[in-house]
Amino acid sequence: MEQKIKRLPDAELEVMKAVWAAEEPVTRTQLEQVLGSKKQWAPTTILAMLTRLEQKGFLEREKQGRAYLIRPLVSREAYLQVESQSALGRMFGGSAKNLIAALHQCHALSHQEVQELADYLEQLKQEDE
Fold first, then answer.
1. Is 11 exposed, middle or buried (0-12, 13-18, 19+ CB in 10 A)?
2. Core-most of 14, 26, 28, 97, by most CB within 10 Å?
3. Residue 1: what pLDDT?
4. Coiled coil where (predicted)?
5. 22 and 71 housed in the same domain
């Protein structure tokens, strides 16, 4: 049975981003170096977030010698799908068109990006045929 992926609070998402960026199991010390310098979080804060993420099923810690190796159980791609659907639903009524319209209205899309989107949509149409 597949577990439903839930949206993470911003701080826990930052920890997961660091775990995903490592591309291989990491130790808490390695995460503390990355997150401590980037976010100025205390080691106890990082440990608390790792514990919560483990309880939520996002990562696992495996004892190896005196340290624990931390690896993700949820891939970045799987989480990104959930987060994208959630944002689309919450902010744009589930409409991708409304998202693109909002980006256009705030001048967040260059002419080149609009063309890339058009090309991508055309590619999707051809795949569906």
1. middle
2. 26
3. 37
4. none
5. yes
* Amino acid 12: pLDDT: 96
Other CB atoms closer than 10 Å to residue 20's CB: what's the count? 16
Query: Residues 108, 46: one domain?
Result: no
Domain extent for 28: 1-93
Q: Give the burial string for 25-54 (b: 16+ CB within 10 Å, else e).
A: bbbbebbbebbeeeeebeeebbeebbeebe
Roughly what angle, to the nearest 10 degrees, separates helices 76-92 and 96-105? 80
- Tally of structural domains, the chain: 2
- pLDDT at 3 (0 to 100): 63
CA 2/CA 126 separation, integer angstroms: 31
Query: Do residues 25 and 71 touch, judged by C-beta distance below 8 A?
Result: yes
Whether residue 89 is found in the same domain as residue 106: no
pTM of the model: 0.78
pLDDT given for residue 59 in this prediction: 96
CA atoms within 13 A on the CB side of 5: 19
> What is the pLDDT at residue 53?
97
Identify the segments of the chain with pLDDT beneath 70: 1-3
